[in-house]
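BUG: 3D viewer hangs when loading the predicted structure for this chain

Environment: internal workstation, default settings.
Expected: structure renders.
Actual: progress bar stalls at 90%.

Input used:
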Amino acid sequence: REWMDRLGFKKHEPFEISETLDPSGCFVYDNKVYWNKKLGRARAGRAKVCTTRLGPAVDGPAGGFVETFAFGGGHDEENSVELGEAGSSECPPETEPMPKTDCEAGEWLARLGLKRNKQFSIKGREDPAGCFVKEDDRLVYWNGGHGDRDVGRYGRAKVCRRTRHPDGTASANATPDVVSLRAPRRPLSLAQALAMNSAAFAQPLEGKSDSAILHPVAELVPSLPMWMPGLPRVSEFNMGDGWDIDGGLLAALQRGARRVVWIIPSDSFTEAAADVCRLDYGYKFYPRQELHAAFGYGEGARKNSGVFDQRNLSTVLCDMARLRDTGKPTIVWKTLRVLKNDHWGIAGGFDVDVLFVYGHKTKDFVDALPKETQKRLHSNELKRFPEFKIMSENLWKSKWDILAYTNRQVNMLAAHGEYMVRLSEGMVREFLAGGATERAH
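Structure tokens produced before the viewer hung:
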């Protein structure tokens, strides 16, 4: 997905982009950061990239696809796969077998049985079949097994791609294997959770000109060089917040997930349960855009996000409102029929169990707090709990750190989340263990 100049290309020369896959040739990629194993650190460098034409792909167009081999004296720190020596001038022979890697949910996975090699390929097109493995004590992988092993854990994971036919059915050899994974060395930290989250601060800045983005906010908006259709050259573009489009539910349904824990941050949701439960559809109330968009009420970037029948939204909101009014955690288990969504490539026609974990303030939790803490909930520091702003919550106190939160704010959120899950522990455990009885706690 990166544009590279053909080797020997002189800067400022005109060049073209071919929409068809190039059958051969070497390209150069300059002024990017590569990992240098000898120095033990990252450095800016130069990489040579060669492409090799392969035979027709099982799931690709006639004529095959291109595999890419990178050289440049670098080191893939994550997978411990060494690249070629810097300045290597030879492309690998076209007939040399190369181990493939694949990309699953943004993580590179090596094919199972891969011997560590000084060269490897990145395959852009989906592989029709095959098992892959990745080892990293720091990352969580999904263990696609059954029963109490069907959870995300740390360590080594074997991933088998499910082969799907045009009619949406899976092939006979699509069942993933189960592997044992080591326990995590430490709990998931707030910093790690934030690092995996989207750039939420990009949403309020959407559509603003560069001149309107003031320092230091501008430094927080990620940008990448991109060559967009219709533009004469590469330009820097600000990258927005991925959550504006999908928080992960649609990606899970694309993969055919049958069980989803959907954690939804809270917005104000104050309508009485009696009013909510009388609605036929539930569109009048707007608890959270990502929730209401999944039921076909999306707007803007989410207008094509509908995957559930609109009439089911009111039943979800009704159960949430009843729990909220009785002071209980708003955690609801529903079995929903997935509708076909051509925009997202979701086949539909199957049922999914969804555990809606809606982070609304739980009255019983507040009532159980020490009196001193309850008083602090009315202070400027905690008055918005648990609906803190995604940016500039503590702008003045933190000396213009727009992403800063105080220890009290973080601890209150953590305690509230733990309370919700522990109070609903029986239902959560049953859901994760493969139970089949939808209900509200």
